[in-house]
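From the shared-data thread, chain only:
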Amino acid sequence: MTTDALTMPMARAAGARRFSAKAIGGHAVLAVLSIVCLFPIYWMMVTSLRPQGVIFETSLLPSALSIEHYAYALEALPISRMLINTFVVSSVVTILQVVTGLFAAYAFSRWRFPFARIIYVLIALTWLVPLQVVMIPNYLLVVRLGLLDTLTALVLPHFAAALAVMMLTQAMRAFPNEVIEAARMDGAGAFRTLGEIVVPNLRGVIVSLAILIFVSTWNEYFWPLLLTRSPDNSVIQIGLQMFITDEGTNWGPMMAAATAASAPVLLLYVFMQRQVIQSFMKSGLR
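Structure, as tokens:
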């Protein structure tokens, strides 16, 4: 038996120990980061369940549980109506941006027309324009259209999005040309090819994009704050702000409303976490 034969197992064992120590350290860091991220959500839920008299207690576990803040929030504001409004606005915006993105992406990836490259670059540049720059012009347009304090005003400026066009264009450019040509030889037109061939094969990308748009629209605050006036035509993010008054912040009902506002997005993440993570990775936001 040579010296190398004796030293190789020892080197492998040392490497395994180093890998294990590295893996343990990595998992420890991830565990700490997970606690940092999840603790605000836990504290929000716990605070919403503390009775008013002990709402500022600092113990991790509540000494008593109560749903009085949920009852107060439901009585003070039309929380259910706001949640429905938020769901409707988020769903409609998601559908519109995915559909317009599919049509635009199919045109950019499969058709040749003048100035296509310039138009695509201009659309991509709009993604870099911050909301604050276009907020006032869009607000004046909504006022002149008579749509102030309506759900239509919350949807109209988000009819199309550069992010959807770019993500779907990149996905369609990677789609095999042979499949498109085969469909065309079978007599399929552009709409049939898009609906029956391209969309089913890009289902993963479309679902990821839809989740990203839905979550972004659900969490939007400034645009609804600028346009809505009445609670019945507002969204849940604005409802949270209504618990902040000149006399102080009503923390209990605010935490109860925040828990109700977060529940749909948290459930969406629990049941579709793989698609949610992929959507953030593909958009480059994480």
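The mean pLDDT is 85.
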